[in-house]
């Protein structure tokens, strides 16, 4: 396939570009977040390409191509930092031979993040590294951590605040279980539950941080002018992929396809960056049917905001891709696929039977593979009977209550 054309592909992209240039002058401004998101809501679905969304769950990315040159990334410092933490342990890479045999694949393994740095999800990898980079060895007197979350990220930020004896304010949107809110409060954080979607909760958290000179916004999505902390979060996620690269040869498997659950796309971003170091490795994002902002953005040819609905996959219930992640997702994803709650529940039960504890978000990767391993997606991804697939189980069953 051809590489992504560097020229704007639609009037929407031209409009988005002008907004980015305009709001770059107001770094960190909450007005920038709101106005860019508003432009996406107004313009995101006017292109004819969006009609593809109604035909099938898997959308191949027309801008993806194999054979991209590797872009070396320095991840050793990140991993050394994580290894220095008291709760660090390499998470398992678990073979699923019965799934591979059933789907006609060479191997299927799952990177099990159901227990990571003392919490039942992978998010602590990003939160810990980002806070470490942002605060370093400087004075922390009076500092406060702020973020918005639909569950696991907020708990990770709250845990980091507790470990560093700092206060934390966590903004929670609607659709998050009461148990998940309680778990964040149990970390000692000030939790503010709002009856708004995730994107609005992010804007509220950004406004809180902007109003407090001692606050550090630790958000796992980005917008023009707010990119450093989200970049460090993505860098933090590299540890799980580095571990997997070390583990795979011991199991006698490669990594031809990675299926990664996606909300705003930060973990998918880390997967794409890792995939560049692997020979002909494809990355596919999986989203809930009711919150498919990545798939819609691939179809529209630019970052697009979608309305979201209720889903058991609360951690993936996001309406807008991360500004920082989008350029790499646009070139590096082989496609995006959607699954419903029933499929995620079935996959969770199947993983449990195989000894892997998973919540709906983590199980979404297996649910997605059952779509990707059959036609027409199978041929589009080049899957064969000797292909090796890695699934990401991003959370345990206790992550969101």
Automatic annotation (TrEMBL):
Cofactor(s) it depends on: pyridoxal 5'-phosphate
Biological processes, Gene Ontology terms: alpha-amino acid metabolic process
One Pfam assignment: PALP
CDD domains assigned: Trp-synth-beta_II (cd00640)
SUPFAM superfamilies: Tryptophan synthase beta subunit-like PLP-dependent enzymes
Organism domain of life: Bacteria
A Gene Ontology molecular function term of the record: lyase activity
Sorted UniProt keywords: Lyase, Pyridoxal phosphate
Ranges for domain Tryptophan synthase beta chain-like PALP: 88-386
Protein name: Diaminopropionate ammonia-lyase
Organism: Mycolicibacterium agri
